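Q: My labmate handed me this sequence with no annotations at all. I'd like to see what the chain might look like in three dimensions before we decide whether it's worth expressing. Could you predict it?
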Amino acid sequence: MAGTDRVFAPFWSPDNRFVGFYDNSKLKKVDVAGGPPQTLCDAPSMPAGGTWNRDGVIVFGNTTNGVLHSVAAAGGQPKPVTTLDPSRKEFSHRWPQFLPDGRHFLYLARSSQREHTAIYTAALDGKDRKLVVAADSNAAYAGPPGGPGHLLFFREGSLMAQPFDPKKLETSGDPFPVAEAVGYSATLPLASFTVSETGVLVYDSSNRGGELRPTWFDRAGKQLESFGEPGNYVAPRVWPLTR
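A: Here is what I predict for the chain of 243 residues:
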């Protein structure tokens, strides 16, 4: 689609007619049938996720102040819909995902204390904040609108599922793995998976859960050697040497 060469964190409209995305410190949308992207509002260049309900409301992350905001799908002035909890050392809310009722949504609350990094629910009016489950990344609901269904979330290299009631906003039973070595960026943090309303799951396992090692190549492209410990490495640079 024209004008989408710098897309970050795309997300669909409920009717599948539009794709929302971050681009150059703006939140935009583009019609999949054609036409130029439309700017909806200012947004940070670092993506933190977006979700779109059937009432024409978009909730997206803002890494500038760390909280989630809502904005009309037609564009306008965004307003905050979550508040950081200083008692839990929270510094960022990310990766919102609307639940079937279109009023409540899931999101990841990041904390400087790992035990307080978790998935929560909240409502567009700022109420109903509720701890759902400890997790390392984004989450999604899979199941019928009235429930019960399952909550999908990433934990320690695996995509997990746990029974979830979207009306009570509660999990039950024990979580169980549904996919191993799912692609994961610890920097964002974001696990590479998505699930449709019909329950079809798509995920990426290409980076083996983010366990990478820096590797030297010569100028012909031949691999020479790897070094360092396995981990999540982003934007490496070679230190310039002077002789």
